[in-house]
Amino acid sequence: MRVSTKKMKARTGPCYNRLVRQSSYDIAVIGAGSFGSWIAWHLRRAGKSVLLVDAWSPGHARASSGGESRLIRMGYGADEIYTRMAMRSLALWRNLFRHTEQPLFQRTGVLFMARADDPHSSATGQTLRKTGAPFEIVPGGELARRYPQMRIEDPRVYGILEPESGVLMARRAVAAVVEDAVRRGVVYATEAVRGPLGNGEVRTASGEPIRAALFIFACGPWLPKIFPGLLATRICPTRQEIFFFAPPAGDGRFAPPHFPAWIDFTDPRGPYGCPDLESRGFKLGFDRHGEAFDPDTGDRRISAAGLEEARRFLAERFPDLRDAPLTESRVCQYENTSNGDFLIDRHPEFENVWLVGGGSGHGFKHGPAVGEYVCQAIVKGGAGEPRFSFASKGERRQRTVY
Predict the structure, then answer these.
(1) What is the CATH number of the domain that holds 372?
(2) CA–CA separation, 76 vs 121, rounded Å?
(3) pLDDT, tens only, 243-252
(4) Taking a C-beta distance cutoff of 8 angstroms, is the pair 78, 229 a contact?
(5) Model pTM?
(6) Structural domain containing residue 192
């Protein structure tokens, strides 16, 4: 398949059409987030006719793939499967951005802060070494000297730096995948879609049939709403607050290349963030599941308690930002499986329906590898990864992926 490599002109996105009644496709992908868009991209590249459908536009304001930025890091403790998926995904993201001439990956590096007695971080170093992912151990004394922006008083704290990792510009990156998929022949339609009927037929919310041999639902936090009987207790969306704080005027210490993206494994709340990119502010969030959240009706204003907690953390870890003004904020959602592993499996009742989701707060970066995995499973068949199976998804929250 030959695709033009000419630089893409600035525009708001791909051509968004209403569903064409007479058309039929090999595969219809429902949901144009990081998972769905990359699934469509890979399937089209494999020669399939593909319809990609979303109720809104790629990376829209309520999507788990929306917002400005997402970390892409290789370290996952002893979870080699996700380290290898992240390595593959980073290569595919960078290839796409080179092809489309869009600078949507910022190689800021990613810094893990950890204590010397933390087994998860020790396992991270071992897995990175085994897989060949570039990393550097930054001893405690060196960590404080290299990054004086941070207050580090515990002598046991050290760093693991992934110099080739960084930040994906999220909503624009998803739009870039969809645009390239459309150029390759994927058809995009803006439609709300219902779950399959008893005979496996799929229709839009207005009742129009979608004609395809196979359906892949990759709807993020909407999966349990479309399949309530199956997933309402197995995928649980939670409310997550994100904050952006402005560094002092003329102070570049909190922007690349002076400071990387980061995750603080010394704090059980899981603080993480990005440096000041595009002058939007220093990003801070907590990788801790919030309260249950409805992606359609949930209030997307940050809480006073959340902002106060963020400021307390800044005062402790980044004291020069303790009084920094809040420049932006965002309420997004995780869609959590019981243990944090993705769901990638056939629907147990419909042979022509696949379910792909459960990003669990770490899925965005893996979109390219997930798309490739789904494409190979459909085109080539074979046994799937047991950790991604529907059978492995329980109703009791026991998170094991960090």
Answers:
(1) 3.50.50.60
(2) 8
(3) 999 999 999 9
(4) no
(5) 0.94
(6) 25-65+170-235+338-392
Look up tokens 């359906």; give the residue. Answer: 215
Which contiguous run of DSSP H or E holds residue 45?
Answer: helix 34-45
DSSP annotation of 117:
T
In a domain? residue 13: no
Closest CA to 270 of 247, 289, 287: 287
Verify that 354 and 323 share a domain, yes or no. Answer: no
Asked if 89 and 35 touch (Cβ cutoff 8 Å), the reply is no
Q: Which of 156, 215, 175, 226 is nearest to 65 (CA)?
A: 175
Picking from 263, 267, 259, the residue whose alpha carbon sits closest to that of residue 313 is 267
Instruction: Say which DSSP state 65 is in.
Output: T
Long-range Cβ contact pairs of 295-303 (< 8 A, separation 24 or more): 295/62, 295/220, 295/221, 295/222, 295/225, 295/237, 295/333, 296/62, 296/225, 298/239, 298/331, 298/333, 299/331, 300/61, 300/62, 300/330, 300/331, 301/331, 302/241, 302/243, 302/329, 302/330, 302/331, 303/241
Residue 262 CB neighbours (<10 A):
26
Q: Is 85 among the domain residues?
A: no
Please say whether the beta carbons of 69 and 170 come within 8 A: yes
Provide the pLDDT for residue 19: 64
One domain, residues 155 and 247: yes
| pLDDT tens digits, one per residue of 279-314 | 999 999 999 999 999 999 999 999 999 999 999 999
Q: Hey, is 42 helix, strand or coil?
A: helix
Give the DSSP H/E element, type plus range, for residue 182: helix 170-184
Query: Minimal CA–CA distance to 310: which of 345, 281, 342, 286?
Result: 286
Total Cβ atoms within 10 A of residue 229: 9
Q: Is the dihedral of CA 199, 32, 74, 86 positive or negative?
A: positive
What CATH number should be reported for the domain holding residue 275?
3.30.9.10
CA dist 143 and 355 (Å) reads 43
How far apart are alpha carbons 147 and 260 in whole angstroms?
9
Domains identified in the chain, total number: 2
Report whether 262 contacts 246 (CB < 8 A).
no
What's the pLDDT tens digit per position in 336-383?
999 999 999 999 999 999 999 999 999 999 999 999 999 999 999 988
Task: Determine the Cα–Cα distance for residues 164 and 277; give it in Å rounded to an integer.
Answer: 17
> How many whole angstroms from its chain centre is CA 88?
14
